[in-house]
């Protein structure tokens, strides 16, 4: 039962590093290019997930459970964050009838 | 075989992530996001992290994505509701993200990560039994504090969603 999983034997950990970096950068590009607040929020989730996957990969390769516990807490915090963030977006939409972030630029000044 | 499956899942994840960023309709974005999370669940299973695979499947694909889809349908967004940024700033943003990617790859290219020791390797750490033991022995206080966080988040969401007395009642 204690045999090493095949993906850990055959895939180098560097490939997980590159893959997570690519996913994170796609999330950054999404945050920078889109104007819809909900899409930006989803791109933030994308970045959170790339970090989760990298933590899990390191934890599995080193067979250290602490990293996976950390991922579990990140998921819990992300769930709370999504609930509050979407409530804020709905409230903004009720007041200004839009989720365009360029309308909501008062905090910039 | 498993190696090919890893690369297939990686391709699907990156493709769906680009779909999230690039699709015009927010509903398609959410559907691509669900595909991304599905592929990531496959990655967790390949890494033998079965507890995280189940949590990712239930919490992310089940709860969070339904919440997103619900809000998008609730707000009745269409393709033409989003004005797009000027081409120049989009281009600059893509260049900035691409340069970050290149810099990170260049920095991580030669990093030495060969630290798997077959003698002490334990493939069962991702199982529910093992993670539960660690969670309730070493991380009991953070686990309990997470419940306080959820209570605060629930109260905050309800308070934000409630209508104020002076607010216009047009939606």
Any key phrases for this structure?
heterodimer, A: 109 residues, mainly alpha, Helix Hairpins, 76% helix, B: 171 residues, Four Helix Bundle (Hemerythrin (Met), subunit A), 6 helices, 72% helix, extended, cell membrane (chain A), NUOK/Mnh_C1-like (chain A), quinone binding (chain A), translocase (chain A)
Question: What are the secondary-structure elements of chain B, in order, as H or E?
Answer: HHHHHH
Low-confidence stretches of chain A: none
Q: Poorly predicted ranges of chain B (pLDDT <50, ≥5 residues)?
A: none
Largest interface: A-B, 81 and 90 residues
Number-wise, the strands of chain B total 0
Task: State the oligomer.
Answer: heterodimer
Distance between the termini of chain B: 54 Å
**CATH class identity of chain A:** Mainly Alpha
Largest sheet of chain A: none
Tally of individual helices of chain A: 4
Q: Kindly report the CATH topology of the domain at 1-79 in chain B.
A: Four Helix Bundle (Hemerythrin (Met), subunit A)
End-to-end Cα distance of chain A, whole Å, is 61 Å
Which CATH architecture of chain A is right?
A: Orthogonal Bundle
Rg of chain B, rounded, reads 21 Å
Which overall shape of chain B is indicated by the principal axes computed on the Cα atoms?
Answer: extended
Specify the biggest β-sheet of chain B.
none
Question: β content of chain A, as a range?
Answer: under 5%
- Broad shape of chain A: elongated
The average pLDDT value of chain B, as a whole number, equals 87
Mean pLDDT of chain A: 88
Structural class of chain A comes to mainly alpha
């Amino acid at each position: 039962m204690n045999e090493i999983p095949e993906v850990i034997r055959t895939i180098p950990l560097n490939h997980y590093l590159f893959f997570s970096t690519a996913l994170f950068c796609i999330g950054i590009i999404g945050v920078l290019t889109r104007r819809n607040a909900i899409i930006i929020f989803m791109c933030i989730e994308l970045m959170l997930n790339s970090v989760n996957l990298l933590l899990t990969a390191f934890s599995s390769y080193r067979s250290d459970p602490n990293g996976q516990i950390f991922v579990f807490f990140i998921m819990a915090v992300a769930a709370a964050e999504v609930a509050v963030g979407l409530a804020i977006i709905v409230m903004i939409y009720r007041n200004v009838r839009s989720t365009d972030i360029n309308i909501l630029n008062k905090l910039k000044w | 075989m498993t190696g090919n499956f890893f690369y297939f899942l990686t391709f699907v994840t990156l493709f769906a992530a680009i779909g999230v960023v690039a699709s015009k309709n927010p509903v398609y974005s959410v559907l691509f996001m669900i595909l991304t999370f599905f592929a990531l669940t496959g990655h967790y299973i390949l890494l033998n992290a079965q507890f995280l695979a189940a949590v990712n499947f239930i919490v992310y694909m089940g709860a969070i994505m339904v919440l997103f889809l619900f809000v998008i349908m609730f707000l009745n967004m269409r393709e033409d509701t989003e004005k797009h940024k000027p081409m120049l700033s989009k281009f600059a943003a893509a260049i900035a993200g691409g340069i970050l990617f290149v810099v990170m790859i260049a920095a991580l290219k030669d990093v030495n990560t060969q630290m798997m020791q077959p003698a002490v390797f334990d493939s069962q750490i991702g199982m529910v039994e093992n993670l539960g033991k660690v969670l309730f022995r070493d991380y009991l206080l953070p686990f309990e504090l997470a419940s306080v966080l959820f209570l605060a988040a629930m109260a905050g969401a309800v308070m934000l969603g409630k209508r104020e007395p002076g607010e216009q009642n047009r939606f």
